């Protein structure tokens, strides 16, 4: 989308440059593209309109028109304005003395309040606090149990009153309990409620007025569409929010709701939930968010996702193995599995700048090749995985049969793997500079036929019978 | 239209007044107006605000213009009837009803992203079938979220239907047992609840596919229905959700949850244009009684109310 947007901008301006003049109309044309991008990202219609008008005004006053690359200048203006609108960031939680600091969560059903409570507790513990969670969702069946289990997982006490139907009472008693047990932050989980449900909104107000929370956060699903403005506005006017937490950011939603909510409430977005695990709570970055909304990719998130997926210790062990030339097919498969955990290649590619709109190319990236490789490796015995050179024709036929592939696919995989393993061994022994040089050599085709994904059709060289016997000796045949 | 009646009654009770604050009267916008560029522009804005998305909203306006120039519609008031007819063309009656097994249990697999409302929706369906005198068995396939099994158990107790739970955390194994149980207990309906999963998480989508395969292997022609639960407040990302879930487990219809708020759920029209999925049910509240069959007429009325 980013490139598309830039290209479209350039097109708009190029048409005019022949005539040497760029008018207000042309800027407006370009903004039409921005409008579509924002609407497709679920930013609210009126917010988009206001935004586009503002940027048009700003762009006209600037030197966009004289610029050699008006398209790029415009993009920058748009992105800066978006960033400014969603900022400034203030992810601090203000703690009070004497404790406890009371934090109340509110939001629609299914926005992720209870999970976010757990995440917030974990975050606070990492900041040296001693939080307590309070189960005030007495509406949804088993919500109290859910919070209790989360409490165990993050090592945080959970205050609940069995059989109590009135959340106001629970909240009030919880604060006293926190004082007596030395907890310095109280996190109140509340039931999900519709902003138009008068009784339930009144109940939220009652909880707030009885314990006077120092912070009230709205928990909002990042995938919310146009209705985000309605709910956020109402929650804000009834509860006087202090901040917003956006959840489910690990999806591929562009997250325009962030802009809508910020625009109608004026309250800072504090955190975002980025995964199923309880440490997946991040501080909000408006610049990254602006790029994401415009469909410009989010390379920082991609790197973070990779870091999160790949276990560092595990990686170090692997490095060692590679250096010693002991990298086996089992390790190789482990690596592939980790890659798959990052999501389908398609969604990873979408995070790359410039790839967002190129869906045709993305469609070609199906996970089939990886699946085929996995099937082949799964059909090998342990011994074969440890040392694929023992695979001769009969074993190859067996593996091919077991995986539903052709024998040449099996030898292709083994060959690619052997080459890669050798390469890793060589590289592991090198310094950084040498590595780069080596990689360049590789790229220029010194090792033709390499590449893990390549299907190598030619037969692999068979060992002589003598060599094979030697290999087998002492190993025995494990099945 | 008898449909949505209970919801309407409820709305009349108190929600409706607060609701009015949010919903502008598009009906009044349309009445007495000629179909011209200005009206179409306002209409497009309204449709975008109902989450139809830029493409679908523009498409509808184009269709309206064509219909107008061909003299099939004349004035503003005709727009609503025109849209109703279009939607009914989209979703014929046969697409919106549940397909039951010819013999043995009918298996309905329920899937969706986190927080869409799967467990509640399963309870609602269970109640509906139970009320019709069918024997219902629930499979507690959400082994991931804390206390999800407890939540479904409470629903099962309240409704008075059977539930199959497992001790481990392999949902496929639980579903395997549930299929056996459904056959052995001569159940009419087996409702399979699954854990919420983001469509971007490949390993979880494969887990769902495995559940699907287990069901398919245990019971012939099952699952007879695969329902994707969609939160009506969801924006354009729902299209991606539908595409990916469809690819993984051959979704047969949508359960549009949380339509009792101010969100219009217009995204289902965009989804229909992209992946052709009919909406089969709508969820309209937190109690297990708050469910209705989807009705295009009421849906269009609600878009414009």
List key phrases describing it.
heterodimer; A: 479 residues; alpha/beta; Four Helix Bundle (Hemerythrin (Met), subunit A); Rossmann fold; 434 Repressor (Amino-terminal Domain); 3 domains; eight-stranded mixed β-sheet; 8 strands; B: 305 residues; 13 helices; disordered N terminus
Radius of gyration of chain A, in angstroms, nearest whole number: 29 Å
The topology string of helices and strands of chain B comes to HHHHHHEHEHEHEHEHEHEEH
Which residue ranges of chain B are poorly predicted, with pLDDT under 50 across at least 5 consecutive positions?
1-19
Largest beta-sheet characterization of chain B: 8 strands, mixed
CATH architecture of the largest domain in chain A: 3-Layer(aba) Sandwich
- The SS-based structural class of chain A is alpha/beta
The tally of structural domains of chain A comes to 3
Please report the total strand number of chain B as a whole number.
8
CA-CA gap between termini of chain A = 52 Å
CATH topology of the largest domain in chain A: Rossmann fold
**Arithmetic mean of pLDDT of chain B:** 88
Give the helix proportion of chain A (percent range).
Answer: 55-70%
User: Can you say what the CATH homologous superfamily of the largest domain in chain A is?
Assistant: P-loop containing nucleotide triphosphate hydrolases
* CATH topology call of chain B: Rossmann fold
CA radius of gyration of chain B is 20 Å
Tell me about this structure.
The complex is a heterodimer of chains A (479) and B (305). By secondary structure, chain A is of the alpha/beta class. Chain A has 22 helices and eight strands. Chain A has an eight-stranded mixed β-sheet with strand order 3-2-4-1-5-6-7-8, with helices on both faces. Chain B is α/β, with parallel strands linked by helices and 305 residues long. Chain B has helices spanning 5-20, 26-30, 37-49, 53-69, 78-90, 93-96, 118-131, 148-159, 171-184, 202-218, 237-249, 267-275, 296-304, and strands at residues 106-111, 136-141, 162-164, 189-194, 225-231, 253-257, 279-283, 291-293. Chain B has an eight-stranded mixed β-sheet, with helices on both faces. The longest helix of chain B is centred in the first third of the chain and has 17 residues, at 53-69. The chains are: A alpha/beta (479), B alpha/beta (305). Chains A and B meet through α2, α6 and α9 of A and α1, α3, α8 and α11 of B.
């Amino acid at each position: 989308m980013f490139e598309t947007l830039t290209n479209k901008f350039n097109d708009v301006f190029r048409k005019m440059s022949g005539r040497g003049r760029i008018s207000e109309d042309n800027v407006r044309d370009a903004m039409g593209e921005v409008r579509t991008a924002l609407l497709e990202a679920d930013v609210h219609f009126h917010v988009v309109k206001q935004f586009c008008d503002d940027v048009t005004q700003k762009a006209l006053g600037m030197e966009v028109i004289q610029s050699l690359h008006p398209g790029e200048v415009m993009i920058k203006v748009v992105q800066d304005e978006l960033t400014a609108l969603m900022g400034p960031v203030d992810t601090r939680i203000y703690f009070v003395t004497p404790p406890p600091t009371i934090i109340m969560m509110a939001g629609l059903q299914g926005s992720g309040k209870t999970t976010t409570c757990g995440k917030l507790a974990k975050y606070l513990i990492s900041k040296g606090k001693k939080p307590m969670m309070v189960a005030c969702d007495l509406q949804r069946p088993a919500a109290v149990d859910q919070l209790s289990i989360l409490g165990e997982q993050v090592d945080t006490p959970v205050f609940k009153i069995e059989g109590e139907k009135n959340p106001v009472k629970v909240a009030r008693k919880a604060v006293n309990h926190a004082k007596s047990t030395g907890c310095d932050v109280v996190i109140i989980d509340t039931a999900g409620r519709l902003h138009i449900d008068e009784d339930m909104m009144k109940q939220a107000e009652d909880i707030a007025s009885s314990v006077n929370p120092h912070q009230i956060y709205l928990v909002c699903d990042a995938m919310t569409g146009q209705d985000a403005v309605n709910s956020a506005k109402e929650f804000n006017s009834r509860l006087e929010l202090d901040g917003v937490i956006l959840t489910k950011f690990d999806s591929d939603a562009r997250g325009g709701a962030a802009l809508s909510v910020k625009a109608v409430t004026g309250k800072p977005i504090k955190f975002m939930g980025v995964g199923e695990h309880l440490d997946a709570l991040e501080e909000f970055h408006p610049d990254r968010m602006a790029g994401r909304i415009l469909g410009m990719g989010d390379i920082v998130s991609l790197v973070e996702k990779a870091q999160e997926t790949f276990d560092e210790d595990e990686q170090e062990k692997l490095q060692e193995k590679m250096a010693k030339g002991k990298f086996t097919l089992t390790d190789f498969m482990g690596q592939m599995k980790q890659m798959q955990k990052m999501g389908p290649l398609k969604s990873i590619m979408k995070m790359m700048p410039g790839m967002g709109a190129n869906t045709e190319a993305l469609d070609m990236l199906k996970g089939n090749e990886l699946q085929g490789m996995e099937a082949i490796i799964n059909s090998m015995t342990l011994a074969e995985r440890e040392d694929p050179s023992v695979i001769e024709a009969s074993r190859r036929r067996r593996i091919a049969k077991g995986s539903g592939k052709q024998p040449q696919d099996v030898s292709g995989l083994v060959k690619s793997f052997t080459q890669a393993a050798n390469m890793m061994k060589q590289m592991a022994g090198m310094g950084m500079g040498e590595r780069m040089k080596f990689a360049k050599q590789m790229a220029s085709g010194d090792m033709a036929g390499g590449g893990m994904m390549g299907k190598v059709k030619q037969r692999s060289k068979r060992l002589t019978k003598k060599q094979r016997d030697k290999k087998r000796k002492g190993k025995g045949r494990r099945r | 239209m008898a449909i949505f009646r209970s919801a309407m009654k409820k709305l009349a009770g108190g929600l409706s007044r607060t609701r009015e604050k949010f919903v502008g009267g598009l009906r009044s916008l349309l009445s007495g107006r000629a179909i011209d560029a200005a009206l179409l522009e306002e209409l497009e804005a309204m449709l975008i605000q109902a989450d139809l998305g830029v493409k679908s909203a523009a498409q509808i306006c184009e269709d309206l213009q064509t219909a107008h120039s061909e003299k099939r519609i004349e004035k503003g008031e005709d727009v609503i009837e025109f849209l109703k007819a279009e939607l009914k063309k989209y979703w014929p009656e046969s697409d919106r009803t549940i397909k039951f097994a010819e013999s043995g249990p009918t298996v309905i697999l329920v899937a969706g992203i986190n927080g869409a409302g799967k467990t509640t929706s399963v309870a609602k369906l269970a109640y509906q079938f139970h009320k019709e005198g069918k024997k219902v068995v629930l499979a507690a396939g959400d082994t991931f979220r804390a206390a999800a099994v407890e939540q479904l158990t409470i629903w099962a107790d309240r409704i008075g239907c059977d539930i199959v739970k497992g001790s481990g955390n392999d949902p496929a194994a639980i579903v395997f047992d549930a299929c056996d149980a459904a056959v052995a207990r001569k159940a009419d309906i087996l409702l399979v609840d699954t854990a919420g999963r983001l469509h971007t998480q490949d390993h979880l989508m494969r887990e769902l596919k495995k559940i699907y395969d287990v069901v398919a292997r245990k019971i012939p022609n099952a699952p007879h229905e695969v329902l994707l639960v969609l939160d009506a407040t969801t924006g354009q990302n729902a299209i991606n959700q539908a595409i990916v879930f469809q690819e993984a487990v051959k979704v047969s219809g949508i359960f549009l949850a949380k339509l009792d708020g101010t969100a219009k759920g217009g995204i289902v029209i965009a989804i229909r244009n992209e992946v052709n999925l009919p909406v089969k049910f709508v969820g309209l509240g937190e109690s297990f009684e708050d469910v209705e069959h989807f009705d295009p007429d009421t849906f269009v009325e609600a878009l414009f109310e």
